[in-house]
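Thread: zinc ion complex, take 2
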Amino acid sequence: MHTPLCLHAAGEPSEYAARAVAMGLTEIGFSDHSPMRKDNFDEWRMNSDKLSEYVENVGKARRDFPQLTIKLALEVDYLPGQEEWIRELAARHTWDYFIGSVHYVSESWAIDSPHQLAEWRKHDAYEVWAVYFDWLTRAADSGLFEIIGHADLPKKFGIYPERDCTSLFDRFLQTAANRNVAVELNTAGLRKDCKEIYPSPKILQLARQKGVAITFGSDAHAPGEVGMNFAEAVQLARASGYAECRRFTRRKWEMVKF
Ligand SMILES: [Zn+2]
Ligand SMILES: [Zn+2]
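Output below.
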């Protein structure tokens, strides 16, 4: 879940926590968009001088709702070459987990940005998906992340390659399995043009076959989105053969039945 510090989410962490308690959730996690080494890299993340404020705001939600377990995390952008910076971020606070996400397929194009939708028309969809999954595979292989976020984000606007992408998925998922990295079931996809949870049933079935663990996320950018469509996510997970998900505390995992 996110906070206003990333400049495109609404509601303070305590408001998300209040919503979670009202829904009967017992544990939530904040994973706002991490700062880049270079501030003002884009307009949809916190600058590095906001990191302490972020940690304090999550701490306030913990104090306001002691009955709720609240995890402190980051959704970290993976671009090749950022590894050292990500290690520095990891050392700054006691994090429960890092979600590694690929939004960029070059230094300047975030494939999920509605402001950069025109870029899609300049590129072959398969080439974009191939670069995206190559970087996602590198993220899984980096050892920097417990979870890989929204694994098939390129489908956000409903633009799919004509070519079969199974080999891209296979390579990514085999790497996630080898490195013991979990894949997130992210319900935000249901709120986008693709109208489908990230990742697709096909990817999830392949993940299950390879023994890749899962987590559940709503990717809430407002309190009203907390835990949104979790019943559908659980149904999808069960249909793919999952009965357990992963939970993280101070970057150590345990399995939880659902
Ligand atoms: Zn966001
Ligand atoms: Zn994301």
